[in-house]
Amino acid sequence: MCGIIGYVSEGDCCGALFDALRRLEYRGYDSAGIAVLGEKGFSVCKKQGGVSNLASFYAAGNTGVGHTRWATHGAPSDKNAHPHRAGKIALVHNGIVENYAALKAELEADGELFLSETDSEVIAKLISRAYRGDLLRAVHAALGRAEGAYAVAVIAEDRPGEIVAARYKSPLIAGCGREGLFVCSDIPAVAAGAGYIAKAEDGEFVRIADGEICFYDRDLRPVPKVFFRPQADLGAAPSDAGGYCMRREIGEIPAALRRTFCALEKTDFAPCARALRGAKRIFAVACGTAYHSALAFRDAAERDVGVPVLCCTAGEFRYRPPLTERGDLVVAVSQSGETADTLEAVRLAKERGGYVVAVTNAGCSSLASLADFTLVMRAGAEIAVAATKSYNCQLLCLWYLAAEMLFFKRQKYPDWFSSLQKLPSAAEETISLFSEIDRIADSLKDAAAMYFLGRGADECTAREGALKVKEIACVFAEGLAAGELKHGPLALVREGFPVFMTATQPPLFKKCENALAEVRSRGGFAALFSQSEEALSQSCADVKVRLPALPAALMPCIAVIPLQYFAYRMCLERGLDPDKPKNLAKSVTVE
Ligand code: M6R
User: Fold this and answer.
1) pLDDT value for 413
2) What is the pLDDT of residue 417?
3) CA distance 380 to 398
């Protein structure tokens, strides 16, 4: 989950590296560093903390590498920050070298001294020991000993104008931009200024030298590549571009839904018609927020298409009994398309004959390459670690997919298609409710814990609300099916304990109200979110928020917005930075 960048530029590369690191910062922000190769060798600056700590660093030289870190091995500190030096080598790494302890012990026994606690420094040492003037061969030889996952970019003191990079299970691209030729871990970090890019596949190497980018396979045979223009709307603005990214991205939900709907209308589903028509069951795999959208998909697909959906968090999918078979539909959801757990789940599902439909925000991601069919949502760049607009767009894509399934199975167009079109304006209306949410956040700023409840289609909203509050506001929150409250969680409810109920499904209003009554009778603070005048007027809740009315099945896309914003406001009330939540990073590319 670190971001890596390497540049061979026409002039000095320091500015281009720094700029790319600012755009990569969502991948990790506990330390950052740059190494520039100039006439007098390397100039290195690496510091604990955010990329802004490197702002005053400048070194002349056209070849360099940069890194923004999310610590796995070794605490965040100056010495554990990348780039790591060894002999003539400077290296940046994203991933985990799983056999690093054994390699380190071997190198130490042979006299090597380590300056950091990282697994990455082991690779730098191995490359340095293998280096005899041919950087590509040295990187190839060293990585032959590494187990785990890596994307590395390496430069050598006596090879100005050259970068060697390699990938195994961690994303890596190479391309040409305004500033020169680059390798990078992420498309969004370079999409805005990139001309053309190409992706490295697992086991491949990239060499930038003599003004050219060459790809090689695991035996160092040249690999021809198709270079393409990256999706321009993925171009990431850095988090200091004015205001918080999370707030900006919540405000972008209506536009993102509009773009996504237009893209879906233009999507040709014919290539996956057979799989959609024939599927007798569906496996939905995803992590975190994307998993919650899979829960919403389950609701629609089971109720309206009549196909059972097994939702599984991707990290658990591969450790469960392998039930996926030929003919099964596997729906994999991932904003980034690079989440390691989701990719592994998809690989396994494919091995077992499943047909994979991916829903992702990155049409050129690893997930899109693996899937049999990809639905690309058009949320635009999502930089804040907390997923917001991508969640709303995932729901839209997944419901659209369910509607297509229904069409292919029954040859009948469900009226969903027209209802889905109403989502953007309903989202706009919801955003206008934010002053009510400000008041709630203000009154709850000292709460130590809270529950989010919902039943049926509202359960995913409850879970997503709780996840947002945990990760952004650092407040313990649990998202529950409301019926579960009385089976244990009620024990914690006492005077002032906040309980948020989302109730948008008419047959369940009474049941939700019963749960709120249980909360109120123990002195808890109850907030109700519903589109139903009747449900609101008859409720005992302390606070009632009226949502715009849509067909009940689509309410999760709208009902989540006040909760996303509530988490953001709680975060500000508690003096935290919503774009840099503690211990987290945007794209989880390690298992
Ligand atoms: O890129 P992905 O959608 O695969 O990411 C999955 C999760 O890591 C992600 O949704 C995470 O839970 C978010 N930080 C939640 O806001």
Assistant:
1) 67
2) 80
3) 17
Q: Which of 46, 468, 470, 586 is catalytic?
A: 586
Same-domain status, 218 and 304 = no
Residue nearest to ligand 1 atom 4, measured at CA: 334
Evaluate whether 459 touches 589 at the Cβ level (below 8 Å). Answer: no
Residue 230 has a pLDDT of 81
Asked if residue 57 lies in contact with residue 7, where contact means CB atoms within 8 angstroms, the answer is: no
Ligand 1 and 293: CB distance under 6 A: no
Are both 387 and 452 inside the same structural domain? no
DSSP state, 203?
T
Name the pTM for this structure.
0.84
Report the nearest atom of ligand 1 relative to the CA of 367: 4
Query: In terms of domains, do 399 and 476 share one?
Result: no
Is the bond leading into 83 cis (omega within 30 degrees of zero)?
yes
pLDDT at 233: 66
Is 34 found in the same domain as 164?
yes
Q: Is 325 found in the same domain as 457?
A: no
Whether residue 287 has its Cβ less than 6 Å from ligand 1: yes
CATH number at 382 reads: 3.40.50.10490
Residue type, position 185, single letter: S
Residue of the nearest CA to atom 14 in ligand 1? 386
Index of the ligand 1 atom closest to the CA of residue 586: 14
Q: Is 45 a catalytic residue?
A: no
Q: What is the CATH number of the domain that holds 155?
A: 3.60.20.10
pLDDT reported for residue 440? 96
Q: Count of domains in the chain?
A: 3
- Single out the residue of 239, 236, 289, 336 nearest to residue 577, CA to CA: 239
145 C-alpha to center of ligand 1: Å?
A: 31
| pLDDT at res. 47 | 93
Residue where a domain stops, chosen among 379, 407, 430: 430
- Given the DSSP bridges, would you call strands 309-313 and 3-9 parallel, antiparallel or unpaired? unpaired
Atom of ligand 1 nearest to the CA of 386: 16
The reply to whether ligand 1 has any atom less than 6 angstroms from the CB of 289 is yes
**Tokens 């390798």 -> residue:** 183
Active site residue: 2, 312, 393, 512, which one? 2
Supply the range of the domain harboring residue 563: 432-591
pLDDT at site 186:
84
> Partners of 41 in the beta sheet?
38
Active site residue 474: no
For the chain (591 residues), the mean pLDDT of every run of 10, in chain order, is 91 92 82 95 93 92 93 85 96 92 95 93 97 97 94 97 95 90 87 82 96 97 92 63 86 97 95 93 96 95 91 90 85 94 94 95 90 95 93 97 89 77 96 95 95 97 98 96 92 95 95 94 96 94 96 95 98 92 74 70
Q: Is the CB of 334 under 6 A from ligand 1?
A: yes
Are 175 and 255 part of one and the same domain?
no
Q: How far away, in angstroms, is 511 Cα from ligand 1 center?
A: 31
How far does residue 249's CA lie from ligand 1's centre (Å)? 15
- Name the residue with tokens 């030729």: 181
